[in-house]
Sequence to fold (349 residues):
Amino acid sequence: MFKRSGTGNYAYMSARVKAKTSKLLKEEDYNKMLMMSVPEISHYISEAGYSKEMNDLGTRHAGIDLLEYATYMNMSKQFRSILESANGELKTMIAAYLTKWDFENLKVVLRGKNYGLTPDMIREDLVIAGSLKEDDIERIISAPSIEDALAIFKSKTGLSVSDEAIHLYKEENVLTRIEDELSIGYYKSVLDSITGKDRATNIFRTYIKYVIDLKNIETIMKFKMENVDGSLAADFFIPGGAQLTDKIFAQANAAPTIEAAFNELQSLKVFEELKTMLSQTPNISLLILTMERFRLKMAIQVSHTYPLSVLPVVVYMIMKEDEVKKIRTIAHGINSGLDRDTIKNLLVI
Fold:
């Protein structure tokens, strides 16, 4: 018999996300969309659960823009509803996991300010699904300086960056250091939130640790593909992974080629899964797609193991995000004139 994992309304939330998961689009739905035009895809997803968002935004947007904003809004509402329905330790873990969207929203705001976008243009790309409410994000958007924006963000999420990162941004107009420091803080906060000792919670903790390993591998490969000096890598290492230590990270970054760097990772459990990445010409898009596929595969493997735990909740959120990515990928591919086989290869299945 399954035992409840820590405090929280696990039985209720398990039943709720099971119902939500059953409504997610299936592979046959994506195959049908590959044969459609963008307007036909918009109509199709309206009948598959996105009708309210399509109708609400239909007076302001059309075509590919309407589809993008509606899918993000729908996902945001789903995640917010889950967070508000949970309680106890379960809510704490879900909230920590969803902080990723606070981090993503901050990046959208800072990049938007960098590029001189209007507040309305910035708002359209936000996913209000983390701990930050719309009023909090409005304060960040309206902040007169980057220091003020980051101070507001810290007061609400606890995630902060160093003075050095802010100085680098002001001197070189580069957000990379700020983003990486916030990413490190995010993963630390998620691991800190997973306090239970039962098997289901330990599996969730292990999953997050492997996600950290994958993020570090992604960083290594990006450095190699972009010919970035490996000596700069130490600042971008995310601690807390399952197997990829700072030593392995440094050795891989010091390797002279992508192939040599990848060979430094042979001791990792994820190595066999990622070998196919080098069977084609390495590029950033292939790297990110490979990582996303593996993260999704890991999540699905644990989705039915412990129903009365945080696992099915997090897995639903991962699969919902994947659904939105697939819809947008198909629509963008068709809108760009790509052939169906090329688009299908871009889907994380």
About this structure: Residues 105 and 126 are 6 Å apart (CA to CA). Residues 88-114 form the longest helix (27 residues).
